[in-house]
Amino acid sequence: MTSPAQTESTEAKAPTAVVLTDVAAQKVKALIEQEGRDDLRLRVAVQPGGCSGLRYQLFFDERSLDGDIVSDFGGVEVVVDRMSAPYLTGATIDFADRIDAQGFTIDNPNAQNSCACGDSFH
Q1: FRET label pair with 12: which of 5, 19, 55, 70, CA 20 to 30 Å apart?
Q2: Model confidence over 81-93: pLDDT tens digits?
Q3: C-alpha separations of 63 from 31, 39, 45, 66, 82 in Å
Q4: Computed from CA positions of residues 77, 83, 88, 93, in that sequence, does the dihedral angle turn out positive or negative?
Q5: Going along the chain, which residue ranges are E strands?
Q6: Cα(61)–Cα(18) distance, rounded to whole angstroms?
Protein backbone atom coordinates (compact mmCIF):
# COMPACT_ATOMS: atom_id res chain seq x y z
CA MET A 1 0.00 0.00 0.00
CA THR A 2 2.98 2.32 0.33
CA SER A 3 3.64 2.42 -3.42
CA PRO A 4 0.30 3.94 -4.51
CA ALA A 5 0.63 6.67 -1.88
CA GLN A 6 4.10 7.49 -3.14
CA THR A 7 2.84 7.54 -6.72
CA GLU A 8 -0.01 9.88 -5.78
CA SER A 9 2.34 12.30 -4.03
CA THR A 10 4.62 12.30 -7.08
CA GLU A 11 1.68 13.06 -9.36
CA ALA A 12 0.58 15.86 -7.05
CA LYS A 13 3.92 17.58 -7.61
CA ALA A 14 3.65 17.37 -11.40
CA PRO A 15 1.86 20.74 -11.91
CA THR A 16 4.77 22.58 -10.29
CA ALA A 17 7.16 21.48 -13.03
CA VAL A 18 7.49 21.46 -16.78
CA VAL A 19 5.63 18.73 -18.66
CA LEU A 20 7.33 16.98 -21.58
CA THR A 21 4.94 15.28 -24.02
CA ASP A 22 5.68 11.74 -25.17
CA VAL A 23 6.53 13.00 -28.68
CA ALA A 24 8.96 15.58 -27.29
CA ALA A 25 10.51 13.02 -24.91
CA GLN A 26 11.16 10.65 -27.84
CA LYS A 27 12.78 13.46 -29.83
CA VAL A 28 14.96 14.53 -26.89
CA LYS A 29 16.01 10.91 -26.33
CA ALA A 30 16.92 10.54 -30.03
CA LEU A 31 18.95 13.77 -29.96
CA ILE A 32 20.83 12.70 -26.83
CA GLU A 33 21.59 9.32 -28.45
CA GLN A 34 22.97 11.17 -31.49
CA GLU A 35 25.33 13.01 -29.14
CA GLY A 36 26.58 9.62 -27.94
CA ARG A 37 26.39 10.61 -24.28
CA ASP A 38 24.28 9.33 -21.43
CA ASP A 39 24.96 12.16 -18.97
CA LEU A 40 22.93 14.85 -20.75
CA ARG A 41 19.60 16.25 -19.60
CA LEU A 42 17.27 18.77 -21.20
CA ARG A 43 17.59 22.05 -19.34
CA VAL A 44 14.74 24.54 -19.71
CA ALA A 45 15.43 28.07 -18.54
CA VAL A 46 14.01 31.56 -18.77
CA GLN A 47 16.42 34.39 -19.57
CA PRO A 48 15.95 38.16 -19.85
CA GLY A 49 15.54 39.29 -23.45
CA GLY A 50 13.25 38.89 -26.39
CA CYS A 51 10.65 41.40 -27.53
CA SER A 52 8.37 40.71 -24.56
CA GLY A 53 10.94 40.71 -21.78
CA LEU A 54 11.74 37.02 -21.29
CA ARG A 55 12.74 34.21 -23.62
CA TYR A 56 13.04 30.46 -23.33
CA GLN A 57 16.25 28.49 -23.53
CA LEU A 58 16.29 24.75 -24.19
CA PHE A 59 19.65 23.01 -24.26
CA PHE A 60 21.42 19.85 -23.21
CA ASP A 61 23.33 20.09 -19.97
CA GLU A 62 25.33 17.73 -17.82
CA ARG A 63 25.59 20.14 -14.89
CA SER A 64 23.59 20.05 -11.68
CA LEU A 65 22.88 23.42 -10.12
CA ASP A 66 21.83 24.04 -6.55
CA GLY A 67 18.04 24.13 -6.38
CA ASP A 68 17.44 22.36 -9.73
CA ILE A 69 14.04 20.75 -10.18
CA VAL A 70 14.44 17.47 -12.04
CA SER A 71 11.56 15.59 -13.67
CA ASP A 72 11.79 12.27 -15.52
CA PHE A 73 9.75 11.57 -18.66
CA GLY A 74 10.32 8.06 -19.98
CA GLY A 75 14.01 8.10 -19.17
CA VAL A 76 14.52 11.71 -20.27
CA GLU A 77 15.39 14.09 -17.46
CA VAL A 78 14.15 17.66 -17.70
CA VAL A 79 15.90 20.17 -15.45
CA VAL A 80 14.64 23.62 -14.45
CA ASP A 81 16.72 25.97 -12.31
CA ARG A 82 15.08 27.50 -9.26
CA MET A 83 14.98 31.02 -10.75
CA SER A 84 13.16 29.85 -13.90
CA ALA A 85 10.76 27.47 -12.15
CA PRO A 86 8.08 30.07 -11.23
CA TYR A 87 7.86 31.18 -14.87
CA LEU A 88 7.60 27.62 -16.16
CA THR A 89 5.12 26.06 -13.70
CA GLY A 90 2.63 24.01 -15.69
CA ALA A 91 4.30 24.71 -19.05
CA THR A 92 4.13 21.91 -21.63
CA ILE A 93 6.98 21.22 -24.04
CA ASP A 94 5.97 19.48 -27.25
CA PHE A 95 7.67 18.73 -30.54
CA ALA A 96 6.06 19.74 -33.82
CA ASP A 97 7.06 17.91 -36.99
CA ARG A 98 4.85 19.38 -39.68
CA ILE A 99 5.45 20.86 -43.07
CA ASP A 100 4.81 24.38 -41.73
CA ALA A 101 6.66 24.02 -38.43
CA GLN A 102 9.33 21.82 -36.95
CA GLY A 103 10.87 22.09 -33.53
CA PHE A 104 10.10 22.27 -29.86
CA THR A 105 7.12 24.33 -28.76
CA ILE A 106 6.28 25.58 -25.28
CA ASP A 107 2.71 26.10 -24.16
CA ASN A 108 3.03 28.21 -21.03
CA PRO A 109 -0.06 29.23 -19.02
CA ASN A 110 2.11 31.81 -17.20
CA ALA A 111 2.89 33.77 -20.38
CA GLN A 112 0.53 36.75 -20.30
CA ASN A 113 2.00 38.48 -23.32
CA SER A 114 4.01 36.98 -26.14
CA CYS A 115 5.34 38.23 -29.42
CA ALA A 116 5.12 36.82 -32.91
CA CYS A 117 8.44 34.98 -32.70
CA GLY A 118 6.88 32.53 -30.20
CA ASP A 119 9.96 32.06 -28.05
CA SER A 120 9.67 35.07 -25.78
CA PHE A 121 7.02 36.22 -23.35
CA HIS A 122 6.35 38.63 -20.52
Answers
A1: 55
A2: 999 999 999 999 9
A3: 18, 9, 13, 10, 14
A4: negative
A5: 19-20, 41-48, 54-61, 69-73, 76-80, 92-97, 102-107, 120-121
A6: 16
